[in-house]
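Please check what follows.
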Amino acid sequence: MRVTYVGHATLLIEVAGARILTDPNFDPRLGRVLPRVSAPGIPLEALGRLDALLLTHAHADHLSFKSLDRLPRDVPLYAPPVIARWLQRLGYRHARELPPASSVEVAGVRVHAAEATHRGNRYGFDRWRSSANMYLLETESESCFFAGDTALTPDTHGLVEARLWARERELDLALLPIGYAPWWKPGFRRGHLTHLDALELFERLRARVLVPYHWGTFRHVTATAHDAIDRLRQVLASHHQQAAVRIIEPGEALDLAPPKP
């Protein structure tokens, strides 16, 4: 299995010959205002063949219409049902519904969906469009969990528990977002993971390896692009899971061999 960090929540996951791209965003600015501080790790034109796109929710940093317009329309785009139907009405006929607790097969890889704890509506008035998904990708020998955006709750690990642990399997790779919010933004953790939350979720998931994302790409209103990763690096200096956390820069890839039988 190989994972390449394109930037923010855009990762190219290659497993068992399948090539799956998450939350594609190649925009030079976020919301036309906040600048991108690092170029996409893979230029959109250099992505090559794709077997599926996974979309977690409708926020502008995860759903870029400009990026979707530049990607091929013959690649299925899986999203929460309310988001998929919205995209279909907008002309994205390749959008397909993937509700929580459902699965789909993509080029020999099983993709499972679960509900994330995140209010993902695009605009202030469209609360009905707030659905957000998390995804688990698995084959007979490998597995990868992509959290999208979510808070840490008592059952955030439930998808892995139901789909892997119940069959006496363990998770190989956890792809988890990290964020930083100033003290005056206490509501941040109701829908996001801090670097410490990500470490705790990693342990709950019992994964072999953690790759953090959602950093190093856009400058935000309340934080720089590197606040969260700087804090994670500080903690990892003395953390017992230091060796299991792989920080890859935009454009870098992680190759993870299947677990030994």
